[in-house]
Amino acid sequence: MHNQHTASDTVGEQVRQHRTRLKMSREQLVAECERLGATGLTYAALVSIESGRRKPDGSRRREVTVDELFALGLALAVPPLLLVNPLGSEQAVPTVPARDPRDSYTVWRWWTGEETPTLGGPLEGRYFAESQPIGEGGPKWSAAWASAAYPASMYPEFERRREAVHRAYLRTESGYGKRRGGKQDHAAAETDYLHRLEELARHIDDMVRAGLTIPTLRNHLIEDMKGLDMLDHPDSVTAEEDD
User: Fold this and answer.
1) What is the DSSP letter of 69?
2) Which of 172, 169, 174 is nearest to 217 (CA)?
3) Of 242, 235, 228, nearest to 197 (Cα)?
4) Which of 119, 199, 234, 236 is the one with CA 20 to 30 A from 11?
5) Could you report the per-residue pLDDT of 68-81, keeping only the tens digit for each?
6) Strands 102-103 and 126-128
7) 210: helix, coil or strand?
């Protein structure tokens, strides 16, 4: 079933709501967009985007481009993804014209690569991932998605492990173990640090094998990983500039 309510309609509604929330006139929003270099977002364009004016065939007169979505988000101090997928404020949001709207959190996870889209169905009330191959002899759609979405899971996990290592390192440096339980607890803090450092090193190796760029690290972490020969590719890591 064709869904006449499009993602551009959602963006237009959210732009109007956030502009009103900020007590911002259309002229002010246009000026801010121009300051950001989005000169195509004129007053007339903004009116068309917010109002969702239709052509005789029911389609929008003015769609919102990806470049404009980014500029509007920055101009309104709103994460751009929240303009197209207002998490928590809408029960259902558009997906693609040939598919039904879905709950906003599910679609959010599609956008971020956390979940494989379930565009098939509904069948007995359930949606499912489509399994058709891409092209002739190509991979299944779901497998191709999982491969492309891999970086979306790797970078958040890198941040989690980097933060865990940093906290463990601070415990060893602060004398936490010495104050609470003497040498035994301090040794436990050191062991925990090394364990978490090795976990981070393994994750970095996985990212390198996937061809991903490694974010910068504190120099002492790099030195420890290299000194303990934890990295398969030591040259893949670089230190933070201010470290």
Assistant:
1) H
2) 169
3) 228
4) 119
5) 999 999 999 999 99
6) unpaired
7) coil
